[in-house]
Each structure stands twice: as structure tokens, then as C-alpha cells.
Design brief:
By secondary structure, the chain is α+β, with helices and mostly antiparallel strands. It has 2 domains: 178 residues, no CATH class; 163 residues, 2-Layer Sandwich (Nucleotidyltransferase, domain 5). Helix content is 46%, strand content 20%. The strands form 3 sheets. Strands 2-6-7-1-5-4-3 form a 7-stranded antiparallel β-sheet. A 5-stranded mixed β-sheet has the order 10-9-8-11-12. Helix 4 packs antiparallel against helix 5. Zinc ion binds next to loops. The site of zinc ion has 8 residues, from loops.
Length: 393
């Protein structure tokens, strides 16, 4: 099992400059390697290979110990491989008759990460007071906000050093032994991802869009308007752009935090969680188009849910969401309603509920039916169409 742990770094001023210097050198090297490839292609239609480039830049590193030489060798190899990959896909698309553009040069703001192998120019360690430090070659020991301890049995494989909005982060990719988990014995639940309430569950609970999110989004809109009024190339525009970036970052963090807590509660409580299959959203394009405007972070929800469910022995079943909001979850009658209608009221059996709760009950129903017929863990969207279809015809 591979997991990524992300931490904020707190470099000193001198370390901050040293880190900037490394990224700058990384960018120069990337662009030089790109130029080499473009020239070779334009001049004699040939491609330069990764081993050729590595041989060349290895020598460059030795000849320039104060500039390129400051970069870790494995980081350079990683950079050249990144470029190699970009070129391979360029040639693949060319061959396929498409018109791909050359991989592009990286501008000052477009190059923000370096990769390391853990233990090679980069290592997590602890001082005498058990404070976490990240050793980075040619930078020194940088303070780490170690908010989440890495399990003892984990092995750190890969390290990505990142700069974002003038802050520094590391992402540690760690390998953990696969967990041995028994099946979760909790009850089953259906979850509808709605417009009005972000989540509604089949047992009648709804979660509204958090107020802080609405507030932050409103602030973002104001900042974006301010940015669009500023003249290009000016210092005032740069400042406004930085503010927009900061707000984006804050919203992402708030959402992430919110979904972490929400999905944690779900996998602690339930043994089977039925959700809509978002890959089938062509069926519900209208509904999800509206959703994407709101962007309640549904992708985040699904990703975190899958991730947490895996290590908790909880089953996540995705069902085809077609008609789930229209059919009565009590008697199967089709009760058509527009998006504005918040309450499901069945004229046939009298069942009344929040429209999203009704949808969540249908989603659960589909998942339970398919779980009975299909093998465990399989995406059973197809079964759902049939069982609901029958009540529609
Ligand atoms: Zn009914």
C-alpha cells in the first residue's frame, strides 16, 4: 500500500534562498535539456535519448559545481526522465496523426518541484528533542511541521519538494504493509451527493454546504474581480494575483479538512456505503453541471472515501444514479419533480421526505440488490438500471 504524507517546511531565510536556488537551477537544466531535444529534432529530425542527455548533463554538473552541481544527481535524472516522458507522448501523438505542440519551456512560475529518492540528498530525521527535520543537500536541516507521524513499519521511498504561494512543502511517498482487515460489520447506507445539501444519507441525515465555504467563495469572487481590473504587467496586478492564489489555497485546505472529517465519520459508522457512480455522469449531466458550478468537492469526497474505506474493511458500491431522484424509494412510483422541488411527496403511497434523502434511499436499494447478485467489490452499475428500469416502464 502506497500512501503520500504531506508536510509544511519552515526554512530559515538563508535556507529559503538556497531552496529557490535549487529550483532555479532545476528549471535552467530542464529548459536546456528541452532545447537540446528541440534542436536535434529540428536540425536532423532525430530524437535525443535519455541516456545521452544524462551523460551530457552529468558532465555539466561536474564542470559547474556552484550552479548545476548543486542539484542532486538523482533529482537531475528524475528531471530528464520527466522530459523524456513528455517527448515520448509528443511523438506518440505525432504518429497517431494528431498535431501536438512541443513540450514547453518552463517560466519562472511554472517550475515548482524537485524529486528525490529518500536517503539520497534528502532525509527525514529527528533531533535530540524529537523535532522533525528534513536534511536537504546544499540547503541544510530544514524544520518540518510534523503534524502526522509516519508509522514505524513504513518505508519512505520518494520525496517531492514543492513550492506553492511562497511556501515550501514535502510530499513523502511511503510504502506500508497491506492491512489485514476483517469486514466491517456496520449497517449499510446510501449517500446522495446533492445540490442543496452536499450529502444526504438514506437514514435521513443531510449535510448542508458549510457556511465558511460560501464565505470564502464570496471573498474569492471579489478578489477575482479586483484582479481582472488590474493592468497587465503591473505590481498591483501581481499582488492581486497572489491574493487570489492564497484564497484558492485556503479554500482547498478547508474543503480537504471538511471531507477528511466527513468521510472518517462515514467509514467509522457504516460497513457498506453506496454512492453514485460519477463516471456515468453523462446520464445526469444537467444535474452535475449545476453541481460543478457549486463544486462541492465531490471528487475529493470520493477519493478520500475510497482511501479510508480500503483500510477499514468498508465496502463502497457505486451505482448508476439515473432516475434515483425521481423514483419513490418507498413504493417505486415515478414522481417527477424539477430541481426546485425540495421535498419528495409520493401521491401513490404518501411517503414524504427530503428529495435528496429519497434519492439516497434509492441508491442504497440499488447497491443492496446488486450486492446480492454480483460478486463483492464489483462496480454494479448495470444491475441498477434494470431494477429501476422495471418500475419505470
Ligand atoms: Zn411511493
Amino acid at each position: 500500500m502506497i500512501r503520500t504524507y504531506k508536510y509544511r517546511l519552515y526554512p530559515t531565510n538563508a535556507q529559503d534562498r538556497a531552496l529557490d536556488f535549487l529550483l532555479w537551477q532545476g528549471r535552467l537544466l530542464y529548459n536546456a535539456a528541452l532545447e537540446q531535444r528541440i534542436n536535434a529534432y529540428k536540425n536532423d529530425g532525430k530524437s535525443v535519448t535519455y541516456p545521452q542527455q544524462w551523460a551530457y548533463f552529468r558532465d555539466q554538473r561536474h564542470e559547474n559545481p556552484d550552479t548545476l552541481g548543486k542539484l542532486n544527481a538523482a533529482s537531475v535524472q528524475q528531471l530528464l526522465r520527466r522530459l523524456d516522458k513528455a517527448f515520448r507522448s509528443f511523438f506518440r501523438r505525432l504518429k497517431a496523426g494528431e498535431k501536438p505542440g512541443f513540450p514547453r519551456y518552463k517560466g519562472r512560475t511554472r517550475f515548482n518541484s524537485l524529486e528525490y529518492r529518500h536517503g539520497d540528498g534528502c532525509k527525514l530525521k529527528f533531533d535530540a528533542k524529537h523535532r522533525a527535520l528534513l536534511y536537504i543537500q546544499n540547503v541544510g536541516d530544514v524544520k518540518v511541521k510534523y503534524h502526522r507521524p509516519i508509522p514505524d513499519e513504513a518505508r519512505i521511498k520518494h520525496v517531492v519538494l514543492k513550492r506553492k504561494n511562497r511556501k515550501w512543502y514535502i510530499c513523502l511517498q511511503i510504502e506500508l504493509p497491506d492491512p489485514v482487515v476483517g469486514e466491517h460489520s456496520g449497517p449499510a447506507v446510501g449517500i446522495d451527493m446533492g445540490l442543496h445539501s452536499i450529502l444526504a444519507s438514506s437514514d435521513g441525515q443531510t449535510i448542508e454546504n458549510p457556511r465558511w465555504l460560501r464565505k470564502s467563495l464570496a471573498k474569492l469572487r471579489v478578489a477575482q474581480r479586483r484582479l481582472s481590473r488590474r493592468k497587465k504587467g503591473g505590481a498591483r496586478r501581481r499582488k492581486a494575483a497572489a491574493q487570489v492564489a492564497r484564497l484558492h489555497e485556503r479554500i482547498t485546505n478547508q474543503r480537504l479538512d471538511f471531507w477528511h472529517k466527513t468521510t472518517r465519520r462515514l467509514v467509522d459508522t457504516y460497513g457498506l456505503i453506496a454512492v453514485e457512480d460519477l463516471t456515468l455522469n453523462f446520464l445526469t449531466s444537467n444535474r452535475h453541471l449545476a453541481l460543478s458550478a457549486h463544486d462541492a468537492g465531490l471528487g475529493m469526497f470520493r477519493q478520500l472515501l475510497a482511501y479510508k474505506a480500503e483500510s477499514a474493511g468498508v465496502r463502497v458500491v457505486a451505482v448508476n444514479p439515473a432516475h434515483t431522484s425521481q423514483v419513490c424509494s418507498s413504493c417505486g412510483e415515478l414522481v417527477e419533480k424539477t430541481l426546485g422541488v425540495r421535498i419528495h411527496r409520493c401521491p401513490s403511497c404518501g411517503y414524504t421526505a427530503d428529495r435528496d434523502v429519497n434519492a439516497a434511499r434509492n441508491i442504497l436499494d440499488l447497491a443492496v440488490k446488486s450486492a446480492r447478485t454480483g460478486p463483492p467489490g464489483v462496480n454494479v452499475a448495470g444491475c441498477g438500471v434494470r431494477s429501476l428500469g422495471s418500475s419505470l416502464l
